[in-house]
Amino acid sequence: MKKLTLAIDLDGTIRNPTTDDLMPDTLKVFAIAKKRCWKIIIFTARTDHEWVRQWLEAHGIVGYPITNIKPAATHFIDDKNIRFVSWEQAIRDCLSTL
Fold it and tell me: What angle do CA 36, 41, 47 make, to 5 degrees?
């Protein structure tokens, strides 16, 4: 199976900006990505990467690169490319391109 590199937006995809909680199924998707050896890059407009890292760690997401510069990726999951509605839909859309 082809290895994916997912650039995942923080706000509105991983983090619910209204409640400051994880979006539903986020940890499940990170576990699936790890099992399938997919690379994940946290892509955010935020420039305070230390705040982002601490927020992610506090919510059980550790060890992923964080950038506010558009990375090389096979898929972008945000509000523009693979439009995030739910994790189930986002992963299905990624897999449909293989």
Answer: 165
